[in-house]
Amino acid sequence: MLNEINSECEENMQGSYEHMIRDFKTLRTGKVTTQVLDNIKVDYYGAPTGLDQVASVLAIDATTISVSPWEKNLLSDIESAISKANIGVNPNNDGEVIKLFFPPMTVDQRKEAVKQSKGMGENAKVSIRNDRKKANDKIKKLEKDKEITADESKASQDKIQKTTDGFIAKLEETLRAKETDIMTV
Questions:
Q1: How many CB atoms lie within 10 A of CB 184?
Q2: Element (H, E) at 100
């Protein structure tokens, strides 16, 4: 019973951490990556579809992304979806390919990206703490219902706290690395 609660709590915490990592990929750093386009959806025959499902998306160099639709009639739909996404650049359509030219990041843009990353990190911490609280509540209920002893309850809660501390430390380390990556020119 307690092992199930511990492993479920650890899985939830891992999920919270991985969610933060996915969020980080949408942030722009000094070198542009195709992940800045991950949240863009294109109307593909009536269904909102991810940009990478209807086009080839490539980072040509540190400041340029090329979007090559597999069907040429999607060119204008893709262009308008990128415009609506407000990612900080205007799409350049040459009739074959859409190119996105990202200017070098300013100091203010870098500071804003760091601020966003800290917010994402804080959200992940809150989620991890909520996972800890849920697990501890389950353990306390077991103790109250006399299914486990007070010593077992205390030991299990200590184990969950150690797991929480480990994930928070891992999260902090990842956050520092991301901040360094963003601020590096």
A1: 10
A2: strand 98-101
Domain that holds residue 41: 34-101
What pLDDT does residue 104 have? Answer: 82
Q: Do the Cβ atoms of 41 and 54 come closer than 8 Å?
A: no
Q: pLDDT by residue (tens digit) across 135-154?
A: 999 999 999 998 989 999 99
CA distances from 68 to 32, 77, 95 (A): 17, 12, 10
Q: Is 134 exposed, middle or buried (0-12, 13-18, 19+ CB in 10 A)?
A: middle
Tell me how far apart the alpha carbons of residues 8 and 136 are, in angstroms, rounded to a whole number: 12
- Residues 148, 171, single domain; the answer is yes
Distance of CA 28 to CAs 18, 56, 172, Å?
18, 20, 19
The CATH number of residue 74's host domain is 3.30.1360.40
For 157-183, the pLDDT digits (tens) are 999 999 999 999 999 999 999 998 888
Q: What is the CA radius of gyration of the chain?
A: 22
| Gap between the Cα atoms of 152 and 58, Å rounded | 54
Q: 143 and 88, same structural domain? A: no
Q: From 101, 124, 140, give the residue that closes a domain.
A: 101
